[in-house]
Known about the structure:
heterodimer, A: 452 residues, B: 373 residues, alpha/beta, Nickel import system ATP-binding protein NikD (chain B), EC 7.2.2.11 (chain B), ATP binding (chain B), cell membrane (chain B), transport (chain B)
Amino acid sequence: MSGVGPAESDPDALLQVRDLCKYFDNDSGLLGGVSLGDEFPYVSRSSSDVRAVDGVSFDIKEGETLGLVGESGCGKSTLARTVLRLLEPTSGSVYFQGEDLASLSGEPLRRMRKDMQMIFQDPQSSLDPRMKVGPIVEEPMQAHGMLDEEGREARAKELLEKVGLDPQHYNRYPHAFSGGQRQRVNLARALSVNPDFIVCDEPVSALDVSIQAQVLNTMEELQEEFDLTYLFIAHDLSVIRHISDRVAVMYLGNVVELADKEELFENPKHPYTRALLDAIPVPDPRSGGRDELLSGDVPSPIDPPSGCRFRTRCPKLIQPEAYEMTDETWRSVVRFQRAVKRRAFEETDPDALRSRYFDGGVPSGDAGTLLDEALGHIERDEWDDAEALLTERFADESVCATAKPAYEIESTLSDGRHYAACHLRRDEAVASAVDESALDGAARLGAPEADD
Amino acid sequence: MTEPLLSVRDLKTQFFTEDGTVRAVDGISFDVYEGEIVGLVGESGAGKSVATSSILRLVDSPGEIVGGEIEFKGETIFGLEEGDAGELRPRDEMLTETQMRKRIRGREIAIIFQDPMESLNPVFTVGGQLREFIEINRDLDPAEAKEEAIDMLREVGIPAPESRYDEYPHQFSGGMRQRVLIAMALACQPDLIIADEPTTALDVTVEGEILEMVTALQEKYDTSFIWVTHDMSVVAEICDRVNVMYLGEIIEQAEVDDLFYDTKHPYTSALLDSMPRPDKTVDELRPIEGVMPEAINPPSGCRFHSRCPEAREVCREVHPDLRDLSDEGEATHTGACVKHDAFDVGYGDSPAIETETGSGFSAGLTETGGEAE
């Protein structure tokens, strides 16, 4: 992750996240992780962690919006909560205005919270139904001992007006508001303590399109007026494209690409970003279809793939150096290996499979021998052996599986930095970044992998 | 053109509540032809889901279909006639509840709901539920039904279907569950599938996969779809023809390309303008001001006039019906907005009215203070 790492970190950054990890214990409870065996010692206990966020680094400059996008389960929300220290980080550090939040606790941390606020996805469940809107907005001020009672009421009314509500609504209950209006109440509450930094966790995804646009516009106006910095999480790339200055793409606990908005959307360098961009339906019937869709599910974060975590679904998996297949043949091998893994066919006849998966030619040499062996296993219905053989000798040999990628490359559409965690970018990498971050990154990120 | 597969005429569904009558669906008409995907688009509260439940006669008390006709393959799903005493009563040829249950629902018209977890029973295996459905509806014996169920699971792209057959719904991801429901919907090879926001709860990559799969399966089985959604991007991708709904009414009907490139109704344009785009950077979004009024007390005249940027005095008085606005020789394109010449009610001379646009968001609270929620 050190492509955007501390070596060249921006001194103006409001928030610096360094190598942040958050693992959840998967085996909590008295009998968690206990398994029974046939041999002595019969009962064993192993612990496995869910690596929700695994070595993430980025900066957020004052006054900018960093968009964070990824599929569900990739660790976006965990990252947001860990950054705010609502969750204790497993390792790594978060510097907010120069102070390391990870080392703070108790009263200093509580005072720090005044400057960082959060807005949640569900506007309904984040408001107490038995409190009136006015007191809801005043509560954070009270907690931080701001102003006196009259002052707080005046400020609450002022804020309600600022977020586009009627100050007269001060005495209403949340149920009297629509979804969009409730999200505005959340905004007012977050703003009440005059924060510098707001984490927005999918703030508009529960709203209708037309209401979404209203709330997004209000958030932009408020950012300008109060000089706010946003970490904006969403799964909707259109929303991210609209509101962000820079965008980070997350996959299975890692940031795989980070660049300025235009650069990322127009010149994506990571196959995952491309796949994500390609998957979104465009509101234009003439836009044409998509090229290639991702197949397969996101792997489990309990035992994530080595090297690049996206390699098990990547359409651009790099051929191991040991083989010299044409690109087309290599793609067929990968397609076949994934099909075997998914048990996507019933056919067991080797010739039928050859013509179905290798219409562009069967690999020759070592690769050909291995493939014949695998087809033999399938013919004898030994699916597990075939899968193991194909996976070990082809997929796991790729550089994508053996080394963790981290490259910083030249931005073509903006002057910002462009980080892409993909080995295909090895040759384009900016010289200085390779020297210090790729190597440094490989060493550092290689370390936790060695524990497996 | 041939006879439509499904034809809905002037359908009205109302809910009789303590606060008054909610006209959730207020006189909509549309057709679905064989092998096409028809979109039904609108914001929440537009009446999309009530419209689809009405087609299957699944509206429960206090709701009731109070008027209109629904014909499916020459049979009457719903139709009223005037009795001797002037009262309205169901026509004789209208299908009975038993016929609906045994012949139509599931077999001829299947439905896929938004939340797959709520449509699957958590205490039975996925395979078991699928098998039972096939067994009952296609009169197969259990062994054949199981084979068919596994085939269907493979068809919709579930990996290792033999072993996943014995798993429970919670062991499937959201996208996989939705695939199971699509398998279930397709299992009886119905002529029409109603998909009620099936991809709304899914990730973009999964949504993309499902849309591709539906397109492929639709070509293979030649099934017709009614695709209910609020997402214009999904509409652009898969629909052939689109109906745009606002507050219980269809306000524009067109082929998908015409809807996006020759938009006739200000609401449709506003909806398109308010969306952030994934394919280009939009500097400023133009949201539709205000919120959708309650269907219990809809605005007079054109129902959209209270939020419409092009509203004039005449819009407050004249209630526009759907009229054909297409040029000669083009595909039918109907719209309900008096700004078009086809209406000739003096829109051009009418003074513009102040809409909620002027007063910003303060006009936000609903009339009933939100008690309806």
